[in-house]
Prior knowledge:
The chain is mainly beta.
Amino acid sequence: MKATLLLTFALLAFGLQGYAQNESSSGTQTTNLNLTNAIDITFVNNSSASGIALNFNFNTVNDFANGLESAPVQMKVRSNKKFNISVKSSGAYFTYSGSTTPAPHMYVGSVLYFKMTANNTGGWSWVNNRYDYIDHYNWTFLYNGNNGGDQNFTLVYRVTPGFTFPAGTYTTDVIYTATQQ
């Protein structure tokens, strides 16, 4: 009797195991990433596309004779493609604010210079540690920068107005343009 009961139990266990099913189900969803070309250029000190105003205060004769240099200005490019950087001033002449009439015409290209003191973009430039002028013509100074989210370069400005111009405030905007290749 014991053997019969054991045999019945074994047959029942094997029979139930044959009918056991693993419960599962699956579903599929397609995920598309629709990427566009993206690029931006910002000033690191304020994380903005508009840098802080640079004020060059000419207070001594030596300032006029030797010119003045800015503190380093660091910029950052984020791009998903290789890029170039160009520069120009907002106009051919500085805008004058002062008491002299008629207003003097200070040509930007003969007074305002810049050089690149650090380049961590992977690109190349001929203004590496060498001053070149800025004027109202857009010209490329950094070529073939690598794509990435933190491509930095640092610039320094030099201004040399000399003794020709009267007292007053002379203003221009310097415009940097990052363009994907």
